[in-house]
Amino acid sequence: MRYLMTSKATDTAPNENLYVEMGKFIEELTAAGVLLATGGLAPDGVRVTSSGDEITVTDGPFTETKEAVAGFALVEVRSKEEAIELTRRFRAIVGDGESVIQQVFGP
């Protein structure tokens, strides 16, 4: 089962220990074959919407920084519970904030 784990931006500046601990966590998940992709996301973007035959393109940013998704990890695990446990470990490293886990369907 694949899960997309996203994290919202926070006002807390990362410290050196965060980078060290996150590096270890990413190495562990990569070595286990669980981590498929990870990355940070720019706060701006482009929104493309459609209504009938009309396509509208709008430059971002669109939400308050505290609501914007700042990063993601795509993992392949055996269960939703395993995805939750990985996210708990992630939150323990990065501290206060919010993450969302969504199952990814398809090949």
From TrEMBL:
Pfam families: YCII. It comes from the Bacteria. InterPro entries: Dimeric_a/b-barrel, YCII. Residues 1-90 form the YCII-related domain. Belongs to the YciI family. This is YciI family protein. It comes from Allokutzneria oryzae.
